[in-house]
Design the sequence.
């Protein structure tokens, strides 16, 4: 069975726009409109089976350290940011508290 790269949107049936995609089941699926991914996710397994039956080979999701993760709107970065904010806040207040008693002794 010959395989093809995905060129047609599974929802709209038109040529894909590589700016609109979702990652599902380890694969990246492209769409022709920004609304199509929502429609796809109503019945994703059905669409995945159609890809398979048509012999369409979907792209693998790029590895997480790849730069194209930007479409996720920084979801991956947030827990880290929260941790750093918490750590800095915790750390600096810790330092301040330890300095304050010293100032008190000088007066």
Sequence:
């Amino acid at each position: 069975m010959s395989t093809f790269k995905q060129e047609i949107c599974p929802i709209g049936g038109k040529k894909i726009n590589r700016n609109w995609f979702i990652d599902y089941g380890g694969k990246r699926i492209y769409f022709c409109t920004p609304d199509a991914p929502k429609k796809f996710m109503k019945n994703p397994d059905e669409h995945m089976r159609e890809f398979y039956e048509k012999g369409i080979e979907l792209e693998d999701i790029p590895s997480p350290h790849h730069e194209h993760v930007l479409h996720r709107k920084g979801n991956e970065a947030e827990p880290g940011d929260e941790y750093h904010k918490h750590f800095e806040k915790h750390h600096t207040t810790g330092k301040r508290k330890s300095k304050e008693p010293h100032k008190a002794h000088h007066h």
DSSP finds three helices and five strands in the chain. The longest strand covers residues 17-24. The first helix runs from residue 36 to 40.
